[in-house]
Design brief:
Layout (H helix, E strand, L loop, with lengths): L9 H27 L3 E2 L5 E2 L11 E6 L5 E6 L4 H10 L3 E9 L11 E10 L4 H18 L4 E3 L2 E4 L5 E4 H9 L15 H10 L10 H13 L6 E2 L1 E4 L21 E6 L2 E8 L4 H19 L7 H7 L5 E7 H9 L18
Parallel strand pairs: 1-5, 8-10, 9-11
Antiparallel strand pairs: 2-4, 3-4, 5-6, 6-14, 7-8, 11-12, 12-13, 13-14
Helix pairs in contact: 1-3, 1-9, 2-8, 3-9, 4-6, 5-6, 7-8
């Protein structure tokens, strides 16, 4: 069986090079964007005690050896978030970070085992400020590459148009005919049976062992996400508190949290939080996530006790993680994420 030529062959590189140069121009423009807004660019360690504590994120594990040959586990981080929040606790007010991050079990047109995450944090500023940042960054990326519109798999998005802001509950009604909030109690507790009944009535598949989170995810992936970011970008806002492990509850309705995701051309670009700073509540949520990870995958990751200690003195803040390679794809017209990576991770073949 023949395989495509490697990325380093001159003809393949020549085809990829315009995308790669576009990527560099966008990165330079974003560095200027943050510098003019008085952000400090920080650089965080890739090796961490914990790679993150979300149930469905998979990390790469390694081992650090001491002089005597004894070892202890470390992980390649899935996000620089814990380190960035420690820097906020240390006293930084506005920080931005281009970080290589690592996620296992992920490879495809929009996924790569190693990719670049752009994260930025604003201490003392609300998460709606991040929505304005997103709109400006979409326009800046398009201006930098000279494109009038983003396209992906036949879908079009105007990066200069004001993004639509849509709550998750509104999206469930609009695209699935489901009243999501009817399955969430005032304190944020979820009711699996109510959501299952609503999904059955809407003609959606429900399995006996599905949790509320499984059902929520199915509606989001199958019915909501395929409609987001067409024509203009979509800010999908106010996720249920149960689906926002690092976000604080919304002041007006504790069933939902200060979390939004940014979509363009059906592609998820960014995930933002009004940051949770309650260390005890954060520990409780991490433990719930790891219990779910153990149930589904038979493994867990340790908690970063340093992070939880820092959270206790971290100021109120908002923060966001943006998939920089995906933004570069849309702005350069690339069709796959590996076209905007200078040296992609080799594919292993059996």
């Amino acid at each position: 069986m023949s395989h495509a030529s490697p990325w380093w062959t001159p003809d393949v590189h020549a085809d990829r090079r315009p995308f790669l140069l576009g990527r560099n121009r966008i990165q330079s423009a974003l560095r200027r964007f943050f510098e003019t807004r008085e952000f400090i660019e920080v650089d965080t360690a890739t090796l961490q005690v914990s790679p993150g504590n979300e149930a469905h994120l998979h990390a790469f594990a390694t081992e650090a050896l001491d002089h005597d040959g004894s070892g202890h586990p470390l992980y390649l981080h899935t996000s620089p978030e814990f380190a960035c929040k420690k820097l906020l606790a240390a006293g930084e007010r506005r920080i931005a970070c281009f970080a290589h991050v690592y996620r296992n079990r992920e490879r495809g047109p929009l996924h790569h085992p190693e990719f670049t995450m752009l994260e930025w944090y604003r201490a003392g500023e609300g998460y709606e400020t991040l929505m304005r940042d997103c709109a400006e960054i979409l326009a800046l990326a398009a201006e930098t590459t000279g494109t009038k519109q983003f396209t992906f798999q036949g879908h079009i998005c105007d990066p200069f148009a004001t993004p639509e802001r849509l709550s998750v509950a509104e999206a469930f009604v609009r695209f699935a005919g489901i009243d999501l909030l009817a399955s969430i109690a005032t304190g944020g507790e979820t009711d699996r049976e109510k959501l299952a009944a609503a999904m059955t009535a809407a003609g959606l598949r429900v399995a006996r062992d599905d949790t509320w989170a499984d059902l929520f995810s199915r509606v989001l992936v199958e019915k909501v996400e395929p409609h987001l970011g067409f024509g203009r970008a979509t800010i999908l806002d106010e996720y249920p508190t149960a689906e926002a492990a690092l976000a604080r509850p919304a002041a007006r309705d504790r069933r939902v949290a200060e979390r939004f995701e940014l979509y363009a051309c059906g592609v998820e670009l960014a995930n933002a939080f009004g940051e949770l700073t309650d260390a005890a509540e954060q520990r409780r949520r991490f433990e719930m996530e790891m219990a779910e990870k153990a149930r589904v995958y038979g493994e867990t990751y340790p908690l970063d006790e340093d992070f939880l200690a820092a959270l206790a003195i971290m100021p109120e803040a908002s923060g966001i993680a943006l998939g920089f390679d995906r933004l570069a794809m849309l702005a350069t017209g690339a069709s796959r994420i590996d076209q905007v990576l200078w040296a992609p991770v080799p594919e292993t073949r059996s």
